[in-house]
Specification:
The chain is mostly helical and 117 residues long. The chain is built from four helices and three strands, in the order H-E-H-H-E-E-H.
Length: 117
């Protein structure tokens, strides 16, 4: 009986992981579609406000940009999936590293390979 219960729990976890990956893949596809539309019709030039672009993101800001939690973001950094730098004691993520990470996810999804996670 215990083995059947464990197997059922395992199947539920796999289903959750699969649906989570599908949600991420759907979101990334929506982002890619938006980028394709923007490339096809860039529209008017953006208004400049005189402020410099943000080159380094805090952990909460980078997590928000990727729609993940701070813990997941730190896991990605620890695993070497996402670059980060230290400025004094602060851990910061280069904006370009976030963009490259998303590009790798899109490329992995386009090739039919499972997305990391």
């Amino acid at each position: 009986m215990e083995t059947l219960h464990q197997e059922t729990l395992h199947q539920q976890r796999l289903h959750l992981q699969t649906s989570d990956l599908q949600n991420i893949a759907d979101a990334l596809e929506a982002i890619a579609a938006g980028l394709r539309r923007a490339e096809a019709d860039p529209g008017p030039a953006p208004q400049t406000t005189g402020t410099a672009p943000q080159l380094l993101l805090s952990v909460p800001d980078a997590a928000k940009a990727l729609s993940v939690g701070r813990t997941k973001l730190r896991e990605l950094i620890a695993a070497g999936e996402l670059r980060a730098v230290r400025v004094d004691r602060r851990l910061l993520v280069p904006a370009v590293a976030v963009e490259q990470f998303v590009a790798r996810l899109l490329a992995a999804g386009a090739d039919g390979e499972p997305l990391p996670g």
